[in-house]
Design goal:
Elements lengths: L36 E2 L14 E6 L10 E3 L2 E7 L6 E7 L4 E8 L14 E3 L2 E5 L4 E6 L5 E6 H4 L14 E3 L2 E4 L9 E4 L5 E4 L13 E5 L2 E7 L4 E4 L6 E5 L17 E3 L2 E6 L4 E7 L6 E7 L9 E4 L2 E5 L9 E5 L5 E5 L8 E6 L2 E6 L4 E6 L6 E7 L12 E3 L2 E6 L2 E6 L2
Parallel strand pairs: 1-27
Antiparallel strand pairs: 2-33, 3-4, 4-5, 5-6, 7-8, 8-9, 9-10, 11-12, 12-13, 13-14, 15-16, 16-17, 17-18, 19-20, 20-21, 21-22, 23-24, 24-25, 25-26, 27-28, 28-29, 29-30, 31-32, 32-33
Length: 419
């Protein structure tokens, strides 16, 4: 096991009146709060031995690692067209019938070009960011283009070797995009017409492979973003960067591969990234205009599968190498490691969400989906089954909506009943 970092002397006092609910679109990546938590109840406590019942499956979504979004009885999913020259949005009825498909953007043209952007849907509009940095707004009912901005060119995007991998944050008639680079770090566009509302100052690092989140601190909204070199807080009305953090423990505080959205709870902000970067807890001040380090932990360095908070415990997988990782539980308040465990049978790291007080873990190499009891002392797999359709790594995060579990693998999307 890796070693836990020294806990600072900073207080873990909780602020009264802090809200964990912010007025962002609930239809987007990793659930309504962007935290991996799905507000579902009355789900199966155990799955059948052969896995939950398959309701339907499709194999025409195009290559991609993005997750589906369910909005007004339709399923929205991005992928690539057949010759892999354009990103596409496919929309399905809740029985798997395709309703329409539309091209909207240009994929990344280097390493792993498959589509990554999960749609964000708000007020009948679908917002997307292509691998080349185009911000696009479509009509949700028929896919008609409303506006498009080439954010990569206009804001002089600076990215790493995997291009743009961001799902837009939409709130208060703004669409947030993080181009990084020497011109600006983060921008806000008008959600109705794509016009620039504000641009933040540059932090000069390249953009991460992560989406911004909106937090509510004592009734005050703040945006939290990440680049390759910084975690930072932004005033949502002005774009002013109010605080930054880059004390990752590396010599010169150099660039990191940033892939996971932070999670926020009760005045505290947790984030973790792979390649031995580790995990960090920050505490926001009373109005969210500053942040300070509370603790760090070196056991959990999540590659790109996300993490969840359940009853004061953080659950996720770590990075041993690109093909392997263990499953880890940390105490939210102290950062102490509760366990680091293997998933028996050769399964490794992957993505995780939570619904109805259970974890749903998705092994990225073998494609095993596990129903896991969130026991703070052990990795307790209750049920599991394997995804055999589709090609490539199992990098899409699971989704639960109205008692249905959606799993995407490459061109394929499967819908299983779990209630």
């Amino acid at each position: 096991m890796k070693t836990i970092g020294k806990i600072t002397g900073l207080s873990l006092l909780l602020f009264a009146g802090i809200s964990t609910v912010a007025a962002q679109s609930p239809y987007g990546f990793r659930g309504p709060d962007r935290s991996g938590l799905y507000y579902e109840t009355n789900l199966l406590e155990q799955w059948p031995e052969e896995g939950p019942a398959l309701l339907w499956e499709i194999n025409d979504a195009g290559k991609g690692y993005s997750s589906p979004v369910i909005y007004q009885d339709k399923v929205y999913l991005t992928g690539m067209n057949e010759d892999e020259t354009r990103e596409i949005l496919s929309v399905y009825a809740l029985n798997g019938e395709k309703l329409y498909q539309v091209e909207y953007g240009t994929p990344w043209d280097k390493s792993y070009p498959e589509t990554r952007t999960t749609p964000t849907i708000e007020d009948g509009k679908v917002y997307l960011i292509s691998g080349s940095g185009e911000i696009v707004c479509l009509n949700a009912s028929d896919g008609a283009l409303i506006w498009q901005v080439d954010g990569g060119k206009e804001f002089e995007r600076k990215t790493g070797k995997w291009g743009t991998s961001e799902c837009p944050l939409v709130f208060d008639n703004k669409v947030i995009y993080t181009p990084g680079g020497d011109k600006t770090t983060m921008v806000a566009l008008n959600a109705e017409n794509g016009k620039t509302v504000w641009q933040s100052r540059p932090l000069n690092g390249h953009s991460g492979y992560v989406s911004p989140v909106l937090v509510m601190q004592n009734g005050v909204k703040k945006i939290v973003g990440m680049t390759s070199s910084h975690v930072f807080g932004v005033h949502p009305e002005t774009g002013n960067i109010e605080w930054t953090f880059n004390e990752f423990g590396r010599e010169g505080n150099g660039e990191t591969i940033v892939t996971n959205m932070p999670i926020y709870d009760n005045g505290h902000l947790f984030f973790s990234n792979g390649y031995d970067v580790g995990a960090f807890m920050l505490r926001l001040n009373v109005n969210g205009s500053d942040a300070s380090l509370v603790w760090r932990n070196d056991d959990l360095d999540t590659h790109h599968g996300g993490f969840v908070l359940v009853d004061g415990v953080i659950y996720g997988s770590n990075w041993i190498n690109n093909n392997h990782g263990n499953w880890v539980a940390l105490d939210w308040k102290t950062g102490e490691t509760n366990y680091e465990a293997t998933w028996e049978g050769g399964k490794g790291k992957g993505s995780v969400i939570t619904a109805d007080n259970r974890l749903i873990c998705y092994d990225e190499r073998r494609g095993t989906v596990g129903l896991v009891n969130p026991d703070p002392e052990k990795f307790d797999v209750v049920s599991e089954f394997r995804i055999t359709k589709g090609e490539g790594p199992h990098w899409a995060h699971p989704v639960v909506d109205n008692g249905i579990l959606y799993i995407r693998h490459g061109n394929n999307l499967m819908a299983y009943t779990i209630n």
